[in-house]
């Protein structure tokens, strides 16, 4: 049974000997199978196939080769050269773009750090002032209590002396003094209070404060990430970003800013 042509071994490029018949010289071209054959192939594998001598097809193939050379040199190679030059520009633009994005992100981060430091300093200053005010109130309250204690002790000594050896008038006067006292117990001051509740999940707020990123992948449409930094001009104003692939322009979200105080 003959071996199907699809399962026959293929000739290597530049090989001049037949792979089926003990390395006989390839002298013919089978037009049906489109391959080179030896004289013995004409009576076996390629029997009854239309064939011609190899030298006869050379004049037919040379113009095609010349056309390929001409077309490739004038069109394909020129186009490839332009593409190579373009890729150099793309590489520079790509590096420049992400360097700018990185600088903006770092600037925004440093700005947020400064605002957080300023907010922390303001809050700490508020705590310090409240502490000093409360300290003054407490010390004044203590002094008033000590003065009142001293006056009460002196009044008790006068009461004891009046009971022990005082006259009727002295006893009466002492009674009037305790009945209608001129010294009142100092009123406890109302102190300033503060409370700080730590945010247990600040991640979302930090992402909003950082800004907004608009990205797109290869062959994808413009998409918004969950968190990102929006592109902006040198004045810090929000701007728009347009994809090179021709996607629609999408406005960037304005960067959030921290409040000046809690």
State mean pLDDT (0 to 100 scale): 79
Q: Total helix count?
A: 3
Q: Helix proportion of residues, in percent?
A: 40-55%
Q: Kindly state the number of beta strands.
A: 7
Strand count, sense and barrel status of the largest sheet are: 3 strands, antiparallel
Strand order of the largest sheet: 2-1-3
The shape, in one word, is rod-shaped
Give the uncertain stretches in residue-range form.
1-7, 221-256
**Helix and strand string, N-terminal first?**
EEEHHHEEEE
Structural class: mainly alpha
Q: Give the oligomeric state of the chains in this entry, treating copies of one chain as homo and distinct chains as hetero.
A: single chain
Report the C-alpha radius of gyration, rounded.
50 Å
Describe the protein's architecture and organization.
With 262 residues, the protein is mainly α. It is 50% helix and 6% strand. It has three helices and seven strands. The protein has helices at residues 54-165, 168-179, 203-210, and strands at residues 28-30, 35-37, 51-53, 214-215, 223-224, 240-241, 250-251. The strands form three sheets. Strands 2-1-3 form a three-stranded antiparallel beta sheet. The chain has a two-stranded antiparallel sheet with strand order 4-5. Strand 4 (214-215) and strand 5 form a beta hairpin. Helix 1 packs antiparallel against helix 2. The longest helix is centred in the middle third of the chain and has 112 residues, at 54-165. It is rod-shaped and about 165 Å long. Residues 1-7 and 221-256 have low confidence and may be disordered.
């Amino acid at each position: 049974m003959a071996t199907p042509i699809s399962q026959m071994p293929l000739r290597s490029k530049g090989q001049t000997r037949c792979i089926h018949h003990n390395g006989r010289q390839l002298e013919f071209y089978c037009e049906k199978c489109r391959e080179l054959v030896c004289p013995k192939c004409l009576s076996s594998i390629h029997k009854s196939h239309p064939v011609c001598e190899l030298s006869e097809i050379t004049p037919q193939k040379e113009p095609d080769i010349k056309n390929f050379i001409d077309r490739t040199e004038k069109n394909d190679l020129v186009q490839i050269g332009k593409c190579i030059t373009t890729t150099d520009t793309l590489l520079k633009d790509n590096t420049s773009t992400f360097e700018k994005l990185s600088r903006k992100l770092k600037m925004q981060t440093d700005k947020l750090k400064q605002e957080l430091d300023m907010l922390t300093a303001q809050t700490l200053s508020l705590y310090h002032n409240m502490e000093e005010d409360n300290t003054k109130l407490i010390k004044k309250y203590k002094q008033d209590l000590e003065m009142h204690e001293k006056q009460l002790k002196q009044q008790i000594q006068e009461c004891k002396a009046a009971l022990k050896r005082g006259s009727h008038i002295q006893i009466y006067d002492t009674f009037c003094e305790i009945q209608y006292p001129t010294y009142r117990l100092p009123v406890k001051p109302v102190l300033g209070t503060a409370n700080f509740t730590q945010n247990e999940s600040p991640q979302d707020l930090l992402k909003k404060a950082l800004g907004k990123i608009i990205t797109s992948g290869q062959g994808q449409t413009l998409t918004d990430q969950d968190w990102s930094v929006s592109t902006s001009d040198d004045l810090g104003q929000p701007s728009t970003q347009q994809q090179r692939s021709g996607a629609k322009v999408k406005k960037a979200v304005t960067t959030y800013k921290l409040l000046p105080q809690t």
